[in-house]
Amino acid sequence: MGIYQHFRKEEHPFxxxxxxWKDVVEKSYQFKLTDFLDPREQQIIESLIGTTNxxxxxxxxxxxxxxxxxxxxxxxxxxMINDATFQLTLLEASFNEKFISITHPDVMGAFLSLGxxxxxLGDILVRExxxxxxxxxxxxxxxxxxxxxxxxxxxxxxxxTLSDLYEKELHWLENDKVVSxxxxxxxxxxxxxxxxxxxANVLKKKQVKVNFKLVxxxxxxxxxxDLISVRRKGRSKLVTINGETRKGKLRITTAILK
Length: 258
Hints:
- It is a single chain.
- The protein is built from 6 helices and 15 strands.
- By secondary structure, it is of the alpha+beta class.
- It is globular.
């Protein structure tokens, strides 16, 4: 198994992709720019390439200091990397809050309806009658020309500088818990103070995601760093596993997004 034993089976294809990128950079001496990656994918790249590699470097950027979805640059150690290397563009549009409510899922749905892959889209921000999306620069003109309606509202996207990006630092409140196992249903109950029945309900209704992917199996085993979201209950994560109690239960540190 080698390196694969540290990751879930479903992550193996992405691991192969990362190792392929690494190999190409080492042999060609040219940098590799990825599409947008979610936090788990970024975590995997960091663990595979690391910060102590003498031959290559990896940097992440999604347009701001606190962006969640970022592109990665894998490059020879001597390569100079700056913000422009990541080829990002910020698009913005205004809408009248008095007459229509536009949410993050509305923007996402409109974007995906254009037939563009999710990996070309970075963070989406909606507030105070404005929406912003960070996109890969290579698709900017197509998006501007075709993304003209969201939720029956006509919009007109225009390019802005990345310094205009609305930024919001995420604040996580950590808590120590004791659980019988790392099963998803068990950890969900501990984090959100839900009964077994309520936990089974949200899983059955497909309202739970782990690392941005839908999971409806309560027996799914969590690992350190997993990000969890439950519809209408917010986001959380399994921060660390801190060992066992004398009775064989597990001490864990979790965090919930405030």
